[in-house]
Amino acid sequence: MTDEFPHLGKGHVPVLRLGDVLLVTLQGDLHDSTAEQLQQDIGETIARTRATGVVIDISGVEVVDSFLGRVLAEIAAQARLLAARTVVAGMRPAVAITLVELGLTLPGLRTALSTEEAMQLLARPGPDPRPGGTRPGSA
Amino acid sequence: MPEHEAEGQHGSPTWEVRDFLRRRREQIAQRWADESLFRAVFTVSRDEAVEAGRAVVEALAEVAGTGRPENPAAAGFTTVREQLGRMGAARARAGLTPAQISVEVDALRPPAVDLLVADFPDDAPAGFVRECTNALTALMGTLRLVVMETALNEGEAMLDRQRLQMLEVATPVIRLWDGIVAVPLIGTLDSARSQVVMETLLEAVVTEQARFAILDITGVPTVDSLVAQHLMKTVQAARLMGAECIVSGIRPAIAQTIVHLGLDLGTVVTRAGLADALGYALGRLGAGIVNAAPRGAEPR
Question: Which residue among A111, A117, A139 sits closest to B240, beta carbon to beta carbon?
């Protein structure tokens, strides 16, 4: 069924547009085909709407593996090529611990506590003042 | 001599020992009350010691009745296990080594054996007397085992409880300001503790919606590569959640150690003291602190 109607499939992740920002909410498991579809959708939507930011809300994700980590990094890299900034919002403690234990610290990724904070982050102009929290002296 | 009960073991040495223990319970308990183990544990009254002795003798008789005096897991011991454990623990608290406690328990054997031998008539077959004595000796050896085992288990259970309490006590998360939480770390960080620290800190980041988390290591005596690795992990996990982690309280000596070890804390925001870290976080939140009144014009 998902092959016939890729946009209406069970695991389809909607890409919502809020002004200049795209909002994607991930929930539960993310399968290979869904992830690929999502990456494609985001790329196309950025190109079509000229969005300047992408917020990925993963507060509903309880379990994580290296695959999700890679997908997040790829979405961010892809969005950067299309001149949009990506913020991952609402990661749960268990997920964060697992990613760190897996060695996936996602250095190029911006993060925020909640979607609200992510929107505020993207509302600020120019390059983010704390890119990955790696530049302590840049305040 | 033993009543005629419908038991297959009737007449066997263990059966004889069982009857003897039941018959002479009072005398054995009285003698045991004078031994150093009972005297040291039950200091308040001798009656209490005799009462405890009676319970132990009864348990021994029940175990002897099973025909297997060498079984430390026998059901007969369950009633006195707790009491024996308390006695062992009390002696351990008094500073006795396990070997010394073992010797004290062993001192209960001669009085019982003396009574048993005296109980036999002069014309009793020597072989049967020896078998009975052996059975009683085996039984007392098992008692010794049970005391030691129970005492050791008690000690381990206490250690486990204390370890848990330590973990709870040692990792409080403090909300310093809106959006700023801090964990003052005291004592040595091992992997179990740093795991707890990481989890509690990250949970607090979610519940308080804190954008800044301060790890204060003023109370950590030494920082080695393992501790540094744990700190890095916590910092990275906090960043993934959208919070910034600041490590504060690095004393000059520790800073020197970190440099000597060649540890790379380059991606971590560090500050000398908790106050500096708080100031940095407040500044980043846009909530600077200013003196309300100019110097010399203190409010009355």
Answer: A111
pLDDT score recorded for residue B114: 87
> Mean pLDDT across the stretch A61-88?
87
DSSP H stretches of helix in chain B? 13-23, 25-33, 36-41, 46-65, 78-93, 98-106, 109-119, 126-170, 191-208, 225-240, 252-261, 274-285
Mean pLDDT, residues B22-38 taken together: 87
Contact (CB, 8 A) for A121 and A89? no
* A114 touching chain B per CB within 8 A: yes
**pLDDT tens track for B276-295:** 999 999 998 887 777 776 66
For the domain made up of B13-162, give the CATH fold: Globin-like (1.10.490)
Task: Tell me which residue in A89, A90, A100 faces B233 most closely, judged by beta carbons.
Answer: A100
Q: What pLDDT does A1 receive?
A: 42
Exposure string for B162-173, b = 16+ CB within 10 A, e = fewer = eeeeeeeebbeb
- Determine whether B253 is exposed, middle or buried from the number of CB atoms within 10 Å of its CB (0-12, 13-18, 19+): exposed
Query: In the CATH scheme, what is the homologous superfamily, with its name and number, of domain B174-285?
Result: STAS domain (3.30.750.24)
Per-domain residue ranges for chain A? 15-120
CA B65 – CA B46 distance, rounded (Å): 29
Q: Look up the CATH architecture of domain A15-120.
A: 2-Layer Sandwich (3.30)
- The verdict on A106 touching B (C-beta cutoff 8 Å) is yes
Task: Indicate which of B241, B247, B265, B269 best probes the interface with A, i.e. most A CBs within 10 Å of its own CB.
Answer: B241
Domain ranges of chain B: 13-162, 174-285
